[in-house]
Every structure is written in structure tokens, then in C-alpha cells.
Amino acid sequence: MVKTDIEFSKKVVIVNELGLHARSAAKIAQLAQNAKSTIWVIKDRDKVDASSIIDVLTLACPKGSKIELSADSQVDIDIINDIIALIERGFEE
């Protein structure tokens, strides 16, 4: 039996001078809300739903923080890659 829903994840470093704040969390949430599965943001042992601005903010990620983005399904690999690209561009700020 082949399992089609395999979790996918990628790691990234927050490069924005202001870290992960309300405006940047809103941009992540907006992208995550387009996913077919749940997108997760993981920092250390904390794992939150990326589609929730408040949940993302609770991670308290200053510049230099290492986070992981994970999707419950590989269907959402493009969403993960879009969020990674946004973070690597410093949230376009």
C-alpha cells in the first residue's frame, strides 16, 4: 500500500531585522490559508498552525531564529516553498 500523504518540511532562518512580528506573521498566515493540509511552524519544541497569526507570534522569533515549516501533505510543497522564499526575502520589508 502506498501512502500518498507524506509530511514534508524545510528549515529556514529568520533574516528580517525585526524578526517575526505581526505584519510578517500575517503574510505567513495568508499563504498558509491557501494550503489543502495544515502548515505548521516549528521552533524548538513548539509547533503552531501557520494559518494563525497569533499562534505564529507566540513563537517569539527574533532575527537569527531557526524555524521549520512542515505540511501534513506533500500536496502543499509549493506553499511551503512560497513561505520559505518570503522569509528568505526578509518578508519584503
Describe the structure.
This protein has 93 residues and is α+β, with helices and mostly antiparallel strands. The protein has one domain: HPr-like (Histidine-containing Protein, Chain: A, 2-Layer Sandwich). Helices cover 30% and strands 23% of the residues. The chain is built from three helices and four strands, in the order E-H-E-E-H-E-H. It has helices at 22-32, 53-57, 77-88; strands at residues 8-13, 39-43, 46-49, 66-71. Strands 1-4-2-3 form a four-stranded antiparallel sheet, with helices on one face. A hairpin with a 2-residue loop joins strand 2 and strand 3 (46-49). Helix 1 (22-32) runs antiparallel to helix 3 (77-88). The chain is globular, with a radius of gyration of 12 Å.
DSSP helical segment count: 3
Shape: globular
Number of strands: 4
Q: Total domains, how many?
A: 1
What name does the CATH topology carry? Answer: Histidine-containing Protein, Chain: A
Major beta sheet, specifics? 4 strands, antiparallel
Regarding CATH, which class? Alpha Beta
**Class by alpha and beta content:** alpha+beta
Gyration radius from CA atoms, angstroms: 12 Å
CATH architecture verdict: 2-Layer Sandwich
CATH homology superfamily: HPr-like
For the biggest β-sheet, the strand order reads 1-4-2-3
Uncertain spans: none
Helical amount: 25-40%
- Helix/strand order, N-terminal first: EHEEHEH
Give the termini distance in whole angstroms.
46 Å
